[in-house]
Design brief:
The chain is an alpha/beta fold and 309 residues long. It has helices spanning 5-14, 27-32, 39-48, 60-69, 92-101, 115-119, 130-136, 148-157, 171-174, 178-187, 201-206, 213-220, 237-244, 271-280, 289-303; strands at residues 17-22, 35-37, 53-57, 74-76, 106-110, 123-125, 141-145, 162-165, 192-195, 209-210, 228-232, 249-252. The chain binds 1,3-dihydroxyacetonephosphate and iron/sulfur cluster.
């Protein structure tokens, strides 16, 4: 039998630890966390906490951001294999190549990237503030990395700027096609479609709402007479939706919860990992001081810009 919720909560209190969980985490992990949120919400919470330890139930780049913003705290990622395919789609070498192609362009980096990439950037953004971050820049030439779908969506919102977009993608979102969503909609023609901007253009075009994972929860309240919502993002968020709106119905946009809209990295943390993380203090995030300073500059510039959604 695995560790019980009460054991983990008691241990967290004893160790002066805060447990942060992303909206895509397994239900059991979301339910033991002190705070559940999107990338921006978790980064802000990591900055606000006075706990000595942060147990970060998310993926590696998110735990890195928490460490960068809290260099004096211990930040633990309960499973080191929790990476991110999108973050891995850009390397310092490939970014340099794109910077050479677009000289003089300000580099805006989606937080789904390594600390090294953040350190090479002018500013970071998340899906909750990408439009405001780009509008806040005093230059019109922007190189957006690494997510092509988010970059193209932002480009449409800010047509007055010249935005070059890197060719990376999140396989979890990029696999979804318009035809899948049309098929789901046939069963619920009145349903509202809510999509994450990491989805492809055809999904974004048919969505009623496009926003970050936490903003999705707020958008549901905009439709008090709608029974069914089609959710075009990783299925973990549906747990929070069901908790907050038990009278509504949430359908994964691929028609099958856990089939395609599934992030294998986000599901690498379970209660056993969280328990071990607290008892053995594993796995502490460490970052080279020089990289840390550069990445912090890009993250702090971002934190000064308000959310769009
Ligand atoms: P959010 O910042 O919207 O939570 O998204 C993070 C993410 O990894 C999306 O794939
Ligand atoms: Fe990375 Fe995609 Fe998983 Fe988000 S859903 S953590 S972008 S692989």
């Amino acid at each position: 039998m695995g560790p019980k919720t009460e054991h983990i909560r008691a241990l967290a209190a004893e160790k002066h630890a805060v447990i942060l969980a992303h909206n895509y985490q397994m239900q059991e992990v979301q339910d033991i966390a002190d705070f559940v949120g999107d990338s921006l919400g978790l980064a802000l919470e990591a900055q606000r906490t006075d706990a000595e330890r942060i147990v970060f139930c998310g993926v590696h780049f998110m735990a890195e951001s928490a460490k960068i913003l809290n260099p004096d705290k211990t930040v633990l990622l309960p499973n080191l294999s929790a990476g991110c395919a999108l973050a891995d789609s850009i390397t310092p070498e490939s970014l340099e190549e794109w910077m050479d192609r677009y000289p003089g362009y300000a580099v805006v980096t989606y937080v789904n990237s390594t600390a090294e990439i953040k350190a090479m950037s002018d500013i970071c953004c998340t899906s909750a503030n990408a439009v405001s971050v780009i509008r806040s820049l005093d230059t019109d030439k922007v190189l957006f990395v690494p997510d092509r779908n988010l970059g193209n969506w932002v480009k449409k919102q800010v047509p007055e700027k010249d935005i070059a977009v890197y060719d990376g993608a999140c396989p979890t979102h990029d696999v979804l096609r318009g035809a899948n969503v049309i098929k789901v909609k046939e069963f619920a023609p009145e349903a509202v479609i809510i999509a994450h901007p990491e989805c492809r253009e055809d999904i974004i075009a048919m969505a009623d709402e496009v926003c970050s994972t936490t903003a999705m929860l707020g958008r549901i309240a905009k439709y008090p007479h709608t029974k069914t919502f089609i959710i075009a993002t990783e299925h973990g968020i549906i747990h929070q939706m069901q908790k907050q709106y038990p009278d509504r119905e949430f359908v994964a946009a691929d028609g099958c919860i856990g089939c395609r809209l599934h992030c294998p990295y986000m599901k690498m943390i379970d209660l056993n990992c969280v328990y071990r993380s607290l008892t053995e203090e594993v796995f502490p995030i460490t970052i080279e001081p020089e990289v840390m300073d550069g990445a912090r500059r890009s993250l702090e510039r971002m934190m000064a810009v308000p959310r769009d959604n």
